[in-house]
Amino acid sequence: MVEGKSELGLQNALANSLSPYSFIPIKLDRESRPDLDDIYMSYVTATTGSGGWPLNVFLTPDLKPVFGGTYWPGPSPSTEFKRAVPGDDAPGTFVDILHKMQEVWTTQREKCMQTSADITNQLLAFAAEGIHSQSSVQIRGTDSDPPEPLDLDLLDDALDHFISRYDAAHGGFTASANAPKFPTPSNLTFLLRIGAAIAQPSTHTRFGFFSPVPGILGHSSCLKAASMSLHTLLAMSRSGLRDHLAYGFHRYSVTADWNLPHFEKMMYDNAQLLGCYCDAWALGRDPEILGTIYNLVEYFTNPDSPIVATQGGWYASEDADSHPTVSKLANGASASDDKKEGAYYVWTYKELQTVLGERDAPIVARHFGVKPDGNVPAEHDMHDEFLTQNVLHIEATPSVLAKEFGLSEDEIVRVIKSGRSKLLEHRKTKREAPDVDTKIIASWNGLAISALARAANTLVTIDKARSRACQEAAEKAATFIRKEQYDEKTGKLYRTPGSKTAGFVDDYAYMILALLALFDLTLAQPYLDWAVQLQRYLDDHFSSSTGGYFQAEESGEQIIRLKPGTDNAMPSANGIICTNLLYLDSYCRHDGGAASALKKKEKEDRYETNYVGKARAVLDAFAVEIIQHPFLYVSLLSAVVMEQVGVKTLIAPMPMRDSQLRRLKGWGRTVVKGLVPEVMICTSDGVCRPLKQSDLEDVDDDDDADEFGTGKGKAVVGAADT
């Protein structure tokens, strides 16, 4: 099994005396089959000490790994091939490795099979005892040894780790100054939530951790978390990581200052960052942050956006590479240079002069950091691919430019806006746009739906048109996925439309998250009912007897069943499931007497699934790893807070206005309308009483007190507030 260079390697191999029957090449799309990618990546990481893509692995006929690695140089017409010398540690090209593998398989097959079996058994043991928690964990309520206790002090340990790796100059977090820098939205969300725990109470800061977290971490630590995350998001927004002419963010940066990106755009990155910037706006009300929110909203709602699917939902990504120019031949065909990374996005100073003219070019160039000799550091351009090229980033603000050029700030803003429009038009008409991966992946779309629901709530009092566009796009995507990627009879979710690839744990986790977000936004019962159905399928087909959820349904294609728990480019599926379960318990335990689309018996059944017990079992399953490395499990840490403090369940009167209802919502709360005379708060055992001001802690400022009612011990909102 090989991924990446397989076809080219084998074609050249056949020309160099390899038997055409020696290998069966399989090219795997890791986004369509993340389960297999993770299994064999675990093997390569364990045997070589590192991993990455392209991932290349040789397998036995029963799918057990024999040898693997990441990038091996591919052949070219000028390559002089030399057979690998037996025992040589550096075999060279991909073809050299093919020759060596053919020799080993032919002369030492029995030994090769035994080694493969031994390695596979070691991987099974490692998965059971180590990072994926399958054997050393017990479920609460059994006669076995109790699980490791998870204290809220672990949040402090995780925060200390992020502080130790924080780049105070440029924002972001890295173990080394030379390492690539990734946005890591899950970590930023975690830090923003800590910061919001001590923010001035308001409607918009109710996404923060609640008591006793502020007391455990301390005021200064919470401030530090907020400042690190806000600084990072502002730095990213101004940097070359962002596409300053159109939409969105690129995947990661090669440099510490974020200004030399890998130019691929991933939909899931931008979806998560939209949520981060909404939280950042709530904390700081910075207009620059709001502008970034608007930009990301356009990326997900504008019909002209390259990732927006007309039928609903969003495509997976935009490539990094493209042709620098495109010219039409006489026969209508296109002729262009070879594809180059970033060709669609980089500019020379001369190009700015040509497109913008002598007056405006210096202003726009200064604003975007464009220099005659280029702005890509030589040490990061060993092959002169970016010679004289510039990656656009915000280097000088309009106020600075106004002083430098002796113009009014309004005139500078006009020049920049006009220049941006002209550059964008030139880019769209004179350059070939990067290819778009048109897969509509259920899990990634779930993240986007959740983010847009968050943005709809954030923008409702600021820009109603954009808020409405967010909600419409989110609901349209959910409708499409239910129609095209969901089997109503079996309850099964599919990874992509029209495929036979069953959904993985992240598809279910993120889609349930999305449906809960839509229900919170709209209170439309079908969203909650579908979330319940998807969770039931997860419980039946993915759950582990030792707690937590496997990455995939059981299949003969998997030599190992992994149970992923860490956060990486996307949040931990098990962490998201854990919070989903706690929300579902709150919603399904209390509906305020309102009508439900589910029958009474079905409602009773969904409560009998013991959502809280399953959530606790997830935490127990990963307890050892969370204690050892809490910074790798921030989604699960958030679930620890929610499980220990409990979800606040609120029932509001049916006539309550949406503006009043929004003030009750927040992280760790569920709000429904019911047949109650005033706002009620309900305990986990089903006892409800009128809401007191002290129940929520983060009540609104005094100027909103009249709308919410006053007086200690009295209900905050009553049925008369209509």
Automatic annotation (TrEMBL):
Biased composition (Low complexity): 713-722
Every Spermatogenesis-associated protein 20-like TRX domain range: 21-123
Gene Ontology biological-process annotations: carbohydrate metabolic process
Transmembrane spans: none
InterPro entries, per database record: 6-hairpin_glycosidase_sf, 6hp_glycosidase-like_sf, Ssp411, Ssp411-like_TRX
Record region (Disordered): 694-722
MF term (GO), any: catalytic activity
Gene3D superfamilies: 1.50.10.10, Glutaredoxin (3.40.30.10)
Extent of Acidic residues compositional bias: 696-707
Name this protein carries in UniProt: Spermatogenesis-associated protein 20-like TRX domain-containing protein
Lineage of the organism: Eukaryota, Fungi, Dikarya, Ascomycota, Pezizomycotina
